[in-house]
Amino acid sequence: MPRKHHPADNSVALIRRALRLCPLMRHWPDDVLDEVVAVARLRRYDKRTPLMVGERSRREVLVVASGRLAVEGVDAAGVRFVLSLHGPGEIVSLVRMLGNTCFVYHFVVQEGTVLVHLPGGAFMTVLDAHPALWRDVCMLVLERLHEQIATQQRRALGHTANHVADALARLALIHGKAVEGGQAVSLRISQGDLAAMVAVSRQTVNKELRTLEQMGVIKAAYGRVTIHDLEALRQAAGG
């Protein structure tokens, strides 16, 4: 049986709320969710806190309760890359349930963030006790795999301008907030993070953002991009 942490009552409520926000566990039975809560830990982190650096084999699943988390790393040339950004309700690092596997990425907190930590082994024990739930995990993994393949195809066929527009369009769909009476979408993203996501320099990203501004598609400011024409942005991404 997985070791139970018996979190404090206020933590239990926050953990339960975060897990119910997560599409994977949104409709799981209450008794199953109780088992997950029993092995979970709640942690609060300050902006720019790195997690799991140098812990390539750590088996732990994360659920974002609030704030934002980046999956990133440094390549062989010492260049920073960002694989993805995750907000409230998103479950991260399911692949870390695998044993005897090392990973080249780690996590960096983008702002004040609260995370639910689920030990990989304990989470797998819960799933094994309720085998039908593995289907939910498989469907989520397949959805993410499909998106990764589609993104790779778009980037293989497109140019830098397409890549920047594509990254903005995808991030807006997940993390964007409606502003100006619903006529625009605001996205918190730095040019450095955007550059790391599409593997180009900040100068190149700045140039492409200026082009999109001249087209009237977006308005770029420090740490934020406001999208005024999402359909035009999708067209700039290549469809």
From TrEMBL:
Entries under Pfam families matching the protein: cNMP_binding (PF00027), HTH_Crp_2 (PF13545)
InterPro entries assigned: cNMP-bd_dom (IPR000595), cNMP-bd_dom_sf (IPR018490), Env_Response_Regulators (IPR050397), HTH_CRP (IPR012318), RmlC-like_jellyroll (IPR014710), WH-like_DNA-bd_sf (IPR036388), WH_DNA-bd_sf (IPR036390)
GO terms under cellular component: cytosol
Molecular function GO terms recorded: DNA binding; DNA-binding transcription factor activity
Keyword Nucleotide-binding set for record: no
Origin species: Comamonas testosteroni (Pseudomonas testosteroni)
Keyword set, alphabetical order: DNA-binding, Transcription, Transcription regulation
PROSITE patterns on file: HTH_CRP_2
Coiled coil: none
Protein name, UniProt field: DNA-binding transcriptional dual regulator Crp
Domain HTH crp-type: 158-231
